[in-house]
Design goal:
Layout (H helix, E strand, L loop, with lengths): L1 E2 L3 E7 L5 E8 L5 E7 L6 E6 L3 E6 L5 E6 L5 E9 L2 E8 L3 E6 L7 E4 L5 E6 L6 E6 L5 E7 L4 E6 L11 E5 L3 E6 L2 E6 L5 E5 L11 E3 L5 E5 L5 E5 L1 H11 L18 E3 L22 E2 L20 H7 L3 E3 L6 E4 L9 E6 L5 E6 L4 E5 L18 E3 L22 E4 L5 E5 L4 E5 L5 E5 L6 E7 L2 E9 L3 E6 L4 E7 L5 E7 L4 E6 L3 E6 L5 E6 L15 E4 L5 E6 L2 E6 L4 E6 L8 E6 L5 E6 L4 E5 L4 E6 L15 E6 L7 E5 L4 E5 L33
Parallel strand pairs: 22-23, 25-50
Antiparallel strand pairs: 1-24, 2-3, 4-5, 5-6, 6-7, 8-9, 9-10, 10-11, 12-13, 13-14, 14-15, 16-17, 17-18, 18-19, 20-21, 21-22, 26-53, 27-28, 28-29, 29-30, 31-32, 32-33, 33-34, 35-36, 36-37, 37-38, 39-40, 40-41, 41-42, 43-44, 44-45, 45-46, 47-48, 48-49, 49-50, 51-52, 52-53
């Protein structure tokens, strides 16, 4: 087991529950990033790599250091020991995308390759050791899974289906000599090694992080995958299910986890059947958190807990379930971010893709950036409600302020978009569009002086140089920043365009406007494929200034539509209406809403100061946060959240931007808290799709 602070522990297993701490080794300066067992010349060793840019080989019995390999120019991310015929060697990969190979002889690196996309990469052989694969993620968030031609040091095959905007480095494993498995986009993805196309995927009943860790057991029958709740789900094929059930039926203790388990939180038993062709199997190695990396987990698993939790029947559930109402500060964790600058109504809010900062745009065209630093209280340096961030400003004193035009504030629709690598923000507040460097706050360029003014912005998912710009003259312009040229002009709306969202899977752009209309555009030729008018409930007077927004679910097919009167789910590309939720009149109007990072929940803000949390699949309300639980008491004027943002890797964390200029990070109480329970489906037959207006409990 390797830790984030230079230490490696070696355990010896003696059967039953007898697991003994055999060695403690001070392995590297800083993080120990990876470790693996190896057997050079029949001597049991373990190989480590770390933040200090070195790879080290240790005697597993005595703990003596046998070799130190130096030559990487960046921290070493992973190691892969292997033996080919009589040649024993170690592949190593660094965070700068360099791949090197070493013999056990202290003679330096024998090869020097570049990983695809200069990505942070891990390597693995198939079970019989004849084929080499790697999987990694670049700084821009693009992920690659490939097969290598070892003799030439070249990529032999590139597999399709990984996301273009991964959060964290995508983890993968090989399944015997047949399949590849990777954790990406909140799901587990499978490929046949001989076909570049994605074979199948599974969400494992939800609850997975954006880039889950995963491992397959040697037999290819069990697959372990990490969850957002610090647990492990075990997925199994038919043979794996039979083994697990036979273990559970032996009546052994169910209170202990499997030997060598290092994950905090519950061990979650869940059986998945993603495809009869894959035959899944796994053993867990968590490489992501401050806890540990694990090597050699093929021990005796007789102590697996009983994986058949008692599930109450639907009638019992319906009696138990109750809407979670939060009305006091003690019922949640909240932090108002420190602010020494002029405060004005927050109109746009977003977390950076890394999850370590929040960017806000205020009504006065000023941007503010809060950064969380790594510390003893915040080991990962991620945004949270426990540790205040720093309101970040460069030493030059420059601030990011948009170009503005004189006129009514009501006519201005501020908008911004963040590049995948968090390096640039594109932003507009009624004037020219500005491109800012997020490190220096310098204005890189300005373009497109009004009229018309930009009212919505989105980066093309495959090319950061291309942006879609919604305009207040109802057009959409496809603009190439690098060559300063409008490539296409799309016309289909009647009023200003206030929402844009790309789908990589469907290869489409969805737009929404103040005309309450949705449009779908093909990314190939930019022709309009479909349009749909949003169903406005009777009695709701249309507001010409209302901003309809759109966001894709993580499946890149279902679209969340946010309107002052409602939330709705549509299915692209035909824009079929799936569900509609109309809040009670007493809640006021919806000001903004967003999917949680795992697309399991929807956070919706209202102009009465409340926040509603809904189950995304059914649009059923599961929690309501009252304004008194987080807003300042007795404010001089009415304060409410004008915009809302979801953390990119913590599904229960969100932030609100307030009309008084404040920004609050909000989390449930306790380290593993959740926002209430989802209500049971009606009659056990799935969610209802119609309800009377004003019903908070069921969707339309």
């Amino acid at each position: 087991v390797a830790y984030s602070k230079h230490i490696v522990h070696i355990y010896s297993y003696h059967g039953g529950n007898d697991l003994r701490n055999h060695l403690e080794v001070d392995a590297h300066a800083g993080n120990v990033n990876d470790l693996a067992f190896s057997l050079p010349n029949q001597q049991l060793c373990f190989v480590t790599c770390g933040e200090d840019k070195t790879i080290k080989v240790w005697d597993a019995v005595t703990g003596n250091k046998l070799h130190t390999f130096e030559g990487h120019d960046a921290p070493v991310y992973s190691v892969c020991p292997h033996q080919k015929e009589n040649i024993q060697f170690i592949f190593s990969t660094a965070v700068d995308g360099k791949i090197k190979a070493w013999l056990y002889d202290n003679m330096g690196s024998r090869v020097d390759y570049d990983a695809p996309g200069r990505s942070c990469t891990a390597m693995a052989y198939c079970a019989d050791g004849t084929r080499l694969f790697s999987c990694g993620t670049s700084k821009e968030g693009e992920s690659f899974i490939v097969e290598w031609n070892e003799s030439e040091g070249a990529v032999k095959r590139t597999y399709h289906g990984l996301g273009k905007r991964s959060v964290g480095v995508v983890q993968f494993d090989t399944m015997k000599n047949k399949f590849l498995v990777a954790g990406d986009e909140f799901q587990v993805k499978f490929w046949d090694m001989d076909s570049v196309d994605l074979l199948t995927t599974t969400h494992a009943d939800g609850g997975l992080p954006s880039s889950p860790c995963l491992r397959i057991n040697k037999e290819g029958t069990l697959l372990a995958v990490s969850t957002t709740e610090n647990g492990i789900k075990i997925l199994a094929n038919a043979e794996g299910s039979r083994i697990l059930h036979s273990m559970a039926n032996r009546g052994l203790e169910s209170s202990r986890g499997p030997p060598g388990s290092v994950a905090k939180g519950p061990i979650v038993g869940a059986f998945g059947t993603p495809s009869s062709s894959t035959g899944m199997s796994l053993s867990m190695a968590d490489r992501s958190g401050p806890g540990a990396s694990v090597a050699g987990m093929n021990g005796d698993n007789r102590n697996l807990p009983d994986v058949k939790p008692r599930i109450p029947d639907e009638a019992e559930k319906s009696k138990i379930w109750k809407l979670t109402e939060i009305s006091e500060r003690s019922q949640l964790r909240t932090l108002r971010l420190p602010d020494s600058l002029i405060q004005a109504r927050v109109v746009k809010l977003i977390y950076t893709n890394s999850g370590s900062a929040i960017l806000a745009l205020a009504e006065n065209a000023l941007h503010k950036l809060w950064k969380w630093q790594k510390s003893e209280r915040n080991l990962l340096g991620k945004a949270n409600s426990n540790v205040p961030p720093q309101l970040w400003q460069p030493s030059s004193g420059v601030v990011m302020t948009n170009d503005t035009r004189e006129g009514s504030k009501e006519d201005v629709v501020p908008c911004f978009a963040l590049s995948k690598n968090d390096s640039y923000v594109m932003s507009a507040s009624g004037g020219k569009i500005s491109l800012f460097n997020m490190m220096t706050f310098k204005t890189m360029t300005t373009f497109m002086a009004p009229p018309p003014a930009a009212t919505s912005l989105a980066f093309h998912p495959q090319d950061n140089n291309i942006i879609a710009i919604g305009m207040d003259d109802s057009s959409i312009q496809i603009y190439n920043v690098r060559v300063d040229e409008v490539k296409s002009k799309l016309k289909g709306h009647q009023k200003r365009v206030t929402g844009l969202a790309f789908s990589n899977v469907l290869n489409v752009l969805v737009s929404s406007g103040a005309d309450s209309q949705l449009c779908v555009w093909s990314m190939d030729g930019w022709e309009k494929q479909a349009s749909k008018q949003i169903q406005i409930p009777s009695g709701h007077s249309p507001n010409p200034l209302s901003h309809t927004r759109v966001q894709f679910h993580q499946d890149q097919t279902h679209v969340l539509v946010v309107h002052a009167s409602q939330l709705a789910i549509y299915e692209a590309p035909k824009l079929e209406s799936m569900k509609q939720w109309i809040p009670k009149e007493s809640s006021g109007s919806v000001t903004d809403a967003v999917y949680s990072c795992d697309s399991q929940s929807i956070y919706a803000a209202f102009d009465d100061g409340s926040v509603s949390i809904l189950t995304a699949t059914t649009l059923q309300l599961k929690c309501r946060i009252g304004p008194n639980s987080y807003l300042p008491s007795n404010p001089s004027s009415r304060v409410y959240p004008a915009t809302i943002a979801a953390h990119p890797s913590e599904p229960n964390q969100f932030a609100v931007g307030l009309t008084d200029g404040g920004v609050h990070v909000i989390e449930p109480p306790g380290p593993e808290g959740k926002w209430g329970m989802s209500p049971p489906p009606e009659n056990g037959a799935g969610p209802s799709v119609s309800s009377a207006p004003g019903s908070d409990q069921q969707p339309r």
